[in-house]
Design a protein that fits this description.
Layout lengths: L1 H102 L4 H39 L1 H20 L1
């Protein structure tokens, strides 16, 4: 009987051991499944965060593009107004040239001076009307590139004169 009790106890220990191994295997499988679920959830959260960041970036890019377009439109409108104003100044200079021609002396030294002044006003008016502000800026830039030293000297002279006039 003692042998049978020991045998039963041995079988019970083996059975308990098998049950413990089965429970450990099931716990391991549960942990694996839980790990996979956590990994899947983390991946989904990461993807959502990435999508959200991409959407925010796209919105920011769209807003920056819209702001840039608005600034460009405003600058274009200001440029058009400046060109229109330059055209008006040119037309006024040409009109003044006609007035000088009509009302000034026509003979002698004063007649030649009147003719020269009227011709200069007419040429300046045509230039301003044709080139407008943007064309004049290009011409000034070209002159500065062609003659940099005189341009710097002129700029220094103008700066000096402005400084003296503001100081007094």
């Amino acid at each position: 009987m003692a042998s049978s009790t020991m045998k039963n106890q041995g079988n019970a220990a083996d059975h308990a051991k098998n049950e413990a191994n089965t429970a450990a295997n099931k716990a391991s499988e549960a942990m694996t499944h839980a790990g996979q679920a956590v990994s899947s959830a983390a991946s989904a959260v990461g993807q959502k965060a990435s999508d959200l960041a991409s959407q925010v970036g796209q919105k920011a890019s769209d807003l920056a593009s819209q702001a840039g377009q608005a600034v460009s439109n405003a600058a274009s409108a200001v440029g058009e107004r400046a060109d229109d104003a330059a055209g008006t100044v040119g037309a006024t200079a040409r009109s003044l040239a006609d007035t000088v021609r009509r009302q000034g002396p026509h003979e002698g030294v004063l007649g030649q001076a009147t003719s020269s002044v009227a011709s200069g006003l007419d040429q300046a008016g045509r230039y301003i009307e044709d080139k407008q502000l943007s064309g004049m800026a290009e011409d000034v830039g070209g002159m500065i590139k062609s003659h940099p030293i005189p341009a710097v000297l002129i700029a220094l002279g103008v700066g000096f004169l402005l400084g003296r006039s503001l100081r007094d």
